[in-house]
TrEMBL record, chains A, B:
Its EC number(s): 4.1.3.38
InterPro entries associated with the record: Aminodeoxychorismate_lyase_IV, Aminotrans_IV, Aminotransferase-like, BCAT-like_C, BCAT-like_N, Class-IV_PLP-Dep_Aminotrnsfr
Domain of life: Bacteria
Oligomer status and interactors: Homodimer.
Source organism (scientific name): Allochromatium warmingii
Keywords, alphabetical: Folate biosynthesis, Lyase, Pyridoxal phosphate
Similarity comment text for this entry: Belongs to the class-IV pyridoxal-phosphate-dependent aminotransferase family.
Name of the protein: Aminodeoxychorismate lyase
Length: 284, 284
């Protein structure tokens, strides 16, 4: 652990129900990125939006043909690994388990469960209040309709996009398909506000269907705010009156500046954003 | 190891120069598939086409921004882990090493080296003599121009394609982009023979630039056989007089049957194939 750098060091780790941080090099997560993950906000000692995370994990496991562990077992392990932690982050990784050489999934395969907790970043919450600065990324999103939407472990496109900048003042980068259509941020979903209506890209070719994205679509409908899932390009972003980003750890980030263009944050639909922020960080 | 299934169990493993098979769950290969690999044929106690494998690894490391270890160190570790093994397979995995939470590469990052050896499959060589049966896969290849060609660890497209069949009589499946163009097999590169000329797909959007693919292009040029790198679709495959597949472990597989259509193997350019097979399995 002495050589570890980055924005967070895990507080506690549980692999297949046992404390520890080691796994076999033969695990298919190592060999092929053959697995799934969820990154879950902890608030008041509970995982927020647990059911949405489990729903996405179940969908991902179906798509990859990985046997899904009992969600009650995952909940029990989540309770154990987060015990005594009030706020923070729970990362849950499922892999197809260990296998021999070659792409063919082992049969039977024994799904491996890895749970890690992290503290929240020191400046957590500040960007919700102040808004964030965002850039455009050059790295294109990987396009594969079969893998689109699920939170699998093949994340080199986001890694390379996130490596494009080092300026800590820039919070996020927007990613496009090589064809020019917006897909999302490196770690967020994107909503454009045109003054009357929300617009967000479909995730049928690439990107991740965020839990807070789902929540946004539901809350908008409940508040009578139209939300159109539609293909968007740079021109659509240039015409936006406002923009916000969602993910399960941050909840919502209003965008203050995109690639040099400043936005008036008061134009955003704050009734929705306020509800979204508290809903995203509520246990249940 | 008792629960391990699949086509091969490693004979020996070396992680960062030390015997062992465990690594941290915080390794970015586990978290994001953030790394590269090479699968190298051992013959007469030596790794075949070592320089081609190193060249591809160097290119991949540049593309991902991963610090490349000294190839002399990798050669020394390869010699250590394969010591006393006459024939077999050496798998070499490089990851970006351990990191904190989030896609941003850790700085500094300490590249992790993982070397594993495997025995050859029991029926190795038989398919070179008899030819193989091949099918079409439904799973599309992941498309990303920035990741195309290199042998990175984001391999879920090949995993899902390989999971489409269980019939051991089928040796390989051909994969296409969602747009319909042929990219390659799940673990091979594809060459079409039209009777006068070789055709093989470009790898500018997806797929892996195989070491034996490179060797094929060079040997064909030396033998005066035209080889066209060009986009191919199902129709082009339907018009093929013959077909062969290449990879670093098998060398060459002539295709006897593709999705029910049988080929006369005598139509293939055997001068090339014979040289290719021995060159692919030669130390150097």
């Amino acid at each position: 652990m002495a050589t570890l750098h980055g924005i967070g060091i895990p507080s506690r780790m549980l692999i297949d129900g046992l404390p520890g941080d080691q796994l076999s090099v033969l695990d298919r997560a190592v060999q092929y990125g053959d697995g799934l993950f969820e990154t879950i906000r902890l608030a008041a000692g509970y995982p927020c939006q647990w059911q949405r995370h489990m729903d996405r994990l179940i969908l991902g496991a179906e798509r990859l043909g990985i046997e899904m562990p009992d969600t009650a077992l995952l909940a029990a392990e989540a309770a154990e690994v987060t015990w005594g932690q009030h706020d923070g982050i729970l990362k849950l990784i499922l892999s197809r388990g260990e296998g021999g050489r070659g792409y063919a999934p082992p049969s039977p395969a024994i799904t491996r469960r890895m749970l890690l907790t992290y503290p929240l970043a020191a400046n957590h919450g500040q960007q919700w209040r102040d808004g964030v600065t965002v850039r455009y990324c050059q790295t294109p999103v990987s396009i594969n309709p079969v893998l689109a939407g699920i939170k699998h472990l093949n994340r080199l496109d986001s890694v390379l996009a996130r490596a494009e900048w080092h300026d800590p003042a820039i919070a996020e980068g927007l990613m496009f398909a090589a064809t020019g259509e917006l897909v999302g941020g490196t770690m967020t979903n994107v909503f454009v506000w045109d003054g009357r209506c929300l617009l967000t890209p479909p995730l049928d070719r690439g990107g991740i269907a965020g839990t807070v994205r789902g929540l946004t679509l539901e809350l908008a409908a409940r508040l009578g705010i139209d939300c159109l899932v539609t293909r968007l390009d740079r021109a659509a972003l240039d015409q936006a009156r406002g923009l916000f980003l969602t993910n399960s750890i941050i909840g919502v980030w209003p965008v203050r500046e995109l690639s040099g263009r400043r936005f008036d944050l008061t134009h955003l639909p704050w009734t929705l954003l306020d509800r979204l922020y508290s809903a995203a960080c509520t246990a249940g």
